[in-house]
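Attaching the record inline, Q. Sequence:
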Amino acid sequence: MFLYQKIIATILKIDDYNQLMGLEGKAAKSFCVAYFDGLNWKGRKPRTRCAAINASLDIGYTLLFNYIEVSVRMFGFDSYIVVYHRSWFKRKSLICNLMEPFRYLIDMTVRKALKLKQIKDSDFNMIKEEFRLELEKNGCIRLQYSVYEKIKTKSPTNAGDFIY
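Structure, as predicted:
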């Protein structure tokens, strides 16, 4: 039995939200370790910007979040409705839910940009022990452009190119 088959079998047995979230976290961790292997991966630490890769992922996920939020608001949906993520005060849970299937676009874009050296540690400044992308440096423009191009080519408006 393959690992993914074991995970699916485990998911089907879970009836507790916290257990499911824990399994999602473990799966995400093992994915990132394998996917970002060889790229100085030290673990995902959202909002800490402890490495260029984490800062780049945060920037990409923020751009994706905002892109999806604009689409949701344009069609009049309530962005605070909860589907999977828990409802937190002032958290746009629907946007979090809708962006999940598209996070891979950011992962792919950041991984490719790092491998091609389009984004480098030198594109960032270290401020209060956090990597901060300098707006004046080319890395910021390259990252934003790469994320935008990936989202644009995989968006539902380009249904012929919409591939998971």
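The mean pLDDT is 77. The chain is about 55% helix and 5% strand.

More tomorrow.
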